TrEMBL record:
One of its GO terms (cellular component) is extracellular region. The keyword Signal applies. Keywords: Disulfide bond, Glycoprotein, Immunity, Innate immunity, Secreted, Signal. It is found in: Secreted. This is AGAP005709-PA-like protein. Belongs to the peptidase S1 family. CLIP subfamily. GO terms for molecular function: serine-type endopeptidase activity. The lineage of its organism: Eukaryota, Metazoa, Ecdysozoa, Arthropoda, Hexapoda. Its main location: secreted. It comes from Anopheles sinensis.
Length: 269
């Protein structure tokens, strides 16, 4: 995977900007098959700039408390230098740049076995909260054991569209796609090492691509947006990402105890 990241960061009236090529802002610049997202629709997604890694230059994450971000261990396993971008649905106007003081990798993480791909980042200061920056609603304890099979989800990120080579990441605007949860049995037809702590979504109409790792997978329940998954990996084929192949995410109900024990996140009943 090759990521191209342009970091001409400017402070403009207290709001930061990252310059991006104008040709990546067209109607096809989206999570594969997705649509541009309202800036206030996913206020808990964050971007993560990664320095010193030979695998990733950019990933997404989920704000789980004013000081903690959940992301994939595969993005940060070699302990790189990280910067969290908050309020960044429009990458040309980023509200907060915050450094990372600590990276905690799940103790059972294995990239070879696609196991426990979870990490918690502690930022070096608390982020202010507003309509563009909000803490995510994680699954409740009562959701444990729910497969969510057949639920409609929204998957969001700034990753490649999968439609052309060398597309800059992140793309300028946050994009999302609606796609249903499929059973792990069906998911296993596309991927090896599918586990109970994975949750999969259909790739028939598109899905997450390179640069979307760590991004949220959400459902709506009683009018409330709940993050049930975090994108972990996908199939990157000759003709793009997840064309007919499922996308694999971390099932967050499997990690509520670990998240609660290692962050200030609040897990509701």
């Amino acid at each position: 995977m090759k990521f191209v990241l342009l970091l001409s960061a400017l402070a403009v009236g207290g709001v930061f900007a990252i310059g991006s090529p104008s040709d990546s802002a067209g109607p096809n610049s989206r999570i594969t098959g997705g649509e541009q997202t309202d800036p206030r629709a996913v206020p808990f997604i964050v971007g993560i700039l990664i320095s010193g890694s030979n695998r990733h230059a950019f990933c997404a994450g989920i704000l789980i408390s004013p000081t903690h971000v959940l992301t994939t261990a595969s993005c940060v396993s070699n302990q790189p230098i990280l910067t969290v971008l908050l309020g960044a649905s429009d990458m040309t106007r980023i509200q907060e740049f915050i450094g990372v003081a600590n990276i905690l990798i799940h103790p059972n993480y294995s990239s070879l076995l696609n196991r426990d791909d979870v990490a918690i980042l502690t930022m070096d200061r608390a982020t202010p909260l507003n309509e563009y920056i909000q803490v995510a609603n994680l699954p409740r304890w009562g959701h444990v054991g729910n497969t969510f099979n057949g639920f409609g989800t929204t998957v969001s990120g700034w990753g490649n569209t999968g439609n052309r080579d060398n597309e800059p990441v992140p793309i300028p605007n946050l994009n999302s796609i609606r796609t249903p949860v499929i059973s792990n049995t069906v998911c296993g037809l596309s991927h090896n090492f599918i586990r109970d702590d994975h949750i999969c979504t259909s790739g028939d109409n598109g899905g997450p691509c390179d640069g979307d790792d760590g991004g949220p997978v959400t459902i709506t329940e009683a009018g409330e947006t709940i993050v049930i998954g975090m994108h972990s990996f996908h199939y990157s084929g000759l003709f793009g990402c997840d064309r007919g192949r499922s996308a694999v995410h971390i099932r967050l109900t499997s990690y509520l105890s670990w998240i609660e024990a290692n962050s200030n996140a609040v897990i509701r009943t």
